[in-house]
User: Fold this.
Amino acid sequence: MTDTQEANGVILIVDDSKANLELLSDYLTKAGFHTMEAMNGENALKQVEYKAPDLILLDVLMPGIDGFETCKQLKASPFAHNIPVIFMSALSETIDKVKGFSLGAVDYIAKPFQEEELLARVGVHVKLRSLTQTLERQNLTLKQEITEREAAEAALKKEIKERETAEAALQKLTVELEKRVEERTSELKKALEELQQAQLQMVQNEKMSSLGQLVAGVAHEINNPVGFICNNIAYAKEYSQDLINIVRLYQQHYPNPEAEIKEEAEAVEIEFLIRDLPQLLDSMDLGTDRIRNLSLSLRNFSRSDSSNQVQVNIHDGIESTLLILGHRLKAKGDRPKIEVIKNYGDLPDVSCYPGLLNQVFMNVIANAIDALEISNEPPPGTTEESPSTTTKIAPNPIATIRISTEVVENCAIVRISDNGPGIPEEVRSKLFEPMFTTKPIGQGTGLGLSISRDIVVEKHGGQLKCISAPGQGTVFVIEVPLEPLENSSSQTRPSESPTQEWADEKTVLIS
Ligand SMILES: Nc1ncnc2c1ncn2[C@@H]1O[C@H](COP(=O)(O)OP(=O)(O)OP(=O)(O)O)[C@@H](O)[C@H]1O
Ligand SMILES: [Mg+2]
Assistant:
């Protein structure tokens, strides 16, 4: 067998006639095929198991199993089921051909053989088989490729899905992280603001408490000597009156005394002395009385004793506050004194924290004095030769603070107003915010009104309101329930005009 023969194909010839076997083998070998030979069906079946040919030429009529049975068994064999079978027979009846094709044969050659026809038919079927095999191999490769691609695609899809899941988780994490960072930042910001506010409040409280201690200390030190003087003035009056009586008796019974006594009496102006001494003692009495009242007022202002609410007269608190601020009300440089007009109503004692309430009066009155001082300053850029025509307190050139009190619906109402420049809306809306100030650095912390509102609203269940407009002065309305916080029901009063209460009141000048 040569390479060419092998390349053309291997043909198994099955025929019980030796002559036929030789003839066919001769034709095929010449045509370049390699041949295998079997004399019966059984032998053919054994040979294909050993080596599969490319085509089988199968005789129909043979001893033992005939061609049809052999074909049937070949098609059932796993080694030979796809090897093309061509029947050879002298029988040329149609029924046999049909049987052959139905058993799986691909062609039929009639005996006696025509060499060209035989070679042509064998050639076609070998070629067909070769093409079929190539196609099957390609198919297999293609199928494998498809399977691999499908597997790769599935793996890719899985990876994409995993990445998408990871990305979504990452995004969720990022959002959560950003939210937490935002929350922490705002918590820290809030804590910082609270800390700053607490610090400022501590400074303010410290200032108030040291002021209170100083005032209480001074009042206490004054109290003893003043008490001593007060007590002794009564005796001094009594004793001096006794002495005057005796002098009068002497004058009555001895109208012409010794010359020396007469001279001395004239020298001391005895008549004037007798008239003036009681008056002098009276005015000393009045003076010490005033000092005693001042000391009482000072102690009243500084009463930080009350961690519980106590019943007090609010007017005492206002009076002592005015007393402490008295030096700021006096004329200063070009600024005339500030007039204080009081119109006190009939207030019952109010249940409150007096020390804290006095702090409110102090803040509001000090703000009014600040506003009046500012409004008295000449506007920037004006000189005495060219006075400004826009003096802020033009309607009432006398800087005035008015304080009125009254009871409305179980609330003590204190109104403190000034005829200063008034407050524009943009400032008024921020008035009670902690650390809001329009004053230069070092002059105002911006805590006065914020603390005052806490005291009035939180501590007393009352209200602190401001009514003001530029050029119309300012009114602060402090409302404190007469009863303690638990029983109080604070109500809003209808709003009022800042100029409403500039009516006829008893005028008290503090100078
Ligand atoms: N009677 C008033 N007339 C005009 N403006 C006022 C009056 N009272 C308060 N204000 C304005 O309200 C602002 C806030 O007042 P607040 O008492 O809270 O702080 P402050 O007086 O500036 O500083 P502090 O009282 O802490 O020393 C003031 O800076 C001022 O602009
Ligand atoms: Mg203030």
In short: The longest strand covers residues 400-408. Residues 363, 366-367, 444, 448 surround magnesium ion (ligand 2) (CB under 6 Å). Residues 115-253 form the longest helix (139 residues).
